[in-house]
Amino acid sequence: MTALVPPDLARWQRWAAMIEDYAGTAEMHGSGYWQLDGDPVPTEAGCAAFVAMTELTSTADLDGTRVPSTYFWIAATDGGPDDELVGFLHLRHLLNVVLFEAAGHIGYSVRPSARRQGHATRALALGVRAAAGLGIDQVLVTCDTDNEASRRTIEAGGGLFDDERHGKLRFWIPTSR
What we know:
The chain is an alpha+beta fold. It contains 5 helices and 7 strands. The strands form 2 sheets. Strands 1-2-3-4 form a 4-stranded antiparallel beta sheet, sandwiched between helices. The protein is globular, with a radius of gyration of 15 Å. The two termini are about 20 Å apart.
């Protein structure tokens, strides 16, 4: 089973293990780490900085470029405190010009060791459900044109192809299904 859990300092060791799994192998799309100075440091202090950033962006645009958003960690099994963290999901509550063109409402990533287990598909479905809870009628989800796995995930989640822009495939997913 897959669950979306809020970032929480109490899970810092599981977060650190997830960060280390990504090291040098994969982009952490959906993580929000790019909003911090430098790459995330897999320590308790690094996790605290990450959690603080996610709390600050939940309801406000801090610098004129970000929209209110909700960050989740993707957990294997039921979302309990001992569950393995397997990825990130970032739900943006609205779209600005940049997000409309290239990024969309939802970004996600699954750590390399947990891929091909269905977590991305299940997490995307949970993210779409969370968007519906915010009153969003349909979400825009994008992927790089050469990211076949993400394209399949989006299509499995009900994504309807719209077009290609700036090297991204753009899909809309209705939130009421």
